[in-house]
Amino acid sequence: MDRFIITGGTPLKGTVRIAGAKNATLPIMAASLLCPGSCQIHEVPDLRDVRVMCEILKLMGAQVERGKGYCQIDAWNVASCEVPENLMREMRSSIFIMGALLGRLGRVKVSYPGGCAIGPRPIDLHLKGLAALGAKITEKHGYVLAEAKELRGSDVHLDFPSVGATENIMMAAVRARGITFIRNAAKEPEVVDLQNFLNKMGAKIRGAGTDTIKIEGVTDLYPTNHSVIPDRIEAGTFMVAAAMTQGDVYLENVIAEHTEPVAAKLREAGAEVETSGEGIHVTGRRLKAVDVKTLPYPGYPTDMQPQTMAMLSIAEGTSVVIENIFINRFKHVDELRRMGAQIKIEGRAAVIRGVERLSGACVEASDLRAGVALVLAGLVADGQTLVEHVHHIDRGYEDLEKKLKKLGAQIERIQEVR
Ligand code: EPZ
User: Fold this and answer.
1) pLDDT tens-digit profile of 278-293?
2) Given ligand 1 and candidates 116, 163, 190, 366, which is best to mutate, with the most ligand atoms within 8 Å of its CB?
3) Is 116 a catalytic residue?
4) H-state helical runs in 60-123
5) Residues 158 and 58 both lie in one domain
6) Are residues 138 and 57 in the same domain?
7) More exposed terminus of the chain, fewer Cβ within 10 Å: N or C?
8) pLDDT digits over 292-338, tens only?
């Protein structure tokens, strides 16, 4: 497995272009199965999860062509409705196939999805919503079978504003007879991007971005083209990197509004963050401790929690970080401690006492965001840091080390001899 070797101490300076959003790309790729025809998706990031989704779509019978920044998906001949377990286990997003295939074929069989090891990843809200639309759900031997002769519009109230459940139910409801309401829906920008893609196909969806989404079922959908929104978590990651290395970085291809929770927190910690048009300019200095609690959008994103903790490890003072979304998203803490961070965990809360400097060490990435947090810590640590299991990071960051090197970071990828 590949690893990164990082020598800390260089402030990041320069311009970085943010890629298309992983968590918008993946549901949109799955949603293309709803349409008998060829859709073009642009601003597609080159990520391991995108390549896995391409494999899944091909196995379902779609023709998929992927190029630099785009993919074309021709779902004219979608026939298979069973996703192999090995691919389901590769990533959480494989679950989006359920809503799309149920809407297209009325039948889908999947195993429980994989994804980051950040706590149990149940799909009860997904299944409850699909059942409310009339799907018969059978769970046995680790598989879930959903069948529906006809999907019917329904009033679905989510116990929690689950991003994936909102997106899955939305996809199936597009082909249901009648009107569906999703209440207590997730309001993330990626949900809005999915609505926009589906409406371009001929769906009739209103309300994404609010807590109530109305979907009027339609019978016909038509091929379309779509550009995915910029990745607000990649942007937040580079904003935090600029602030904690006391650098001076300009981010291109961002939607400032989507990064506002992170920008506000960085300003509170003493960084300078200016937004203009499609860019964000971050200037860092020795940061002050701040408290953070993760919440559904527009609250502070849980996907920024590990990176923020790395930043607070060297802030002046004591910070409290509360992780409200996932019950086991502190796996980066032990690795940060190996680098000299002073962090105490009490249930969902982490108390971080800032230190002057971290020290380089050999650390292991356990998931996508925990991994990138260790890279950020390595950028400011004394000496060398070795980050193992970089494949976790490759799932969600396109050319991370190239982008960081272009900003002056001393980082090299050591490829494992295969
Ligand atoms: C999406 O995951 C993102 N992944 C995650 O990003 C992100 O952390 C998460 O939303 C929250 O913003 C993709 O979009 C591919 P949820 P998802 O359903 O849909 C519980 C990354 O780093 N829950 O909103 O799985 C669940 O256990 C990844 O890019 C149920 O209980 O998140 C969790 O505690 C990590 N039952 C909470 O809801 C369900 O049926 C939020 O989960 C579904 C979820």
Assistant:
1) 799 999 989 999 999 9
2) 163
3) yes
4) 85-88, 96-105
5) yes
6) yes
7) C
8) 999 999 999 999 999 999 999 999 999 999 999 998 899 999 999 99
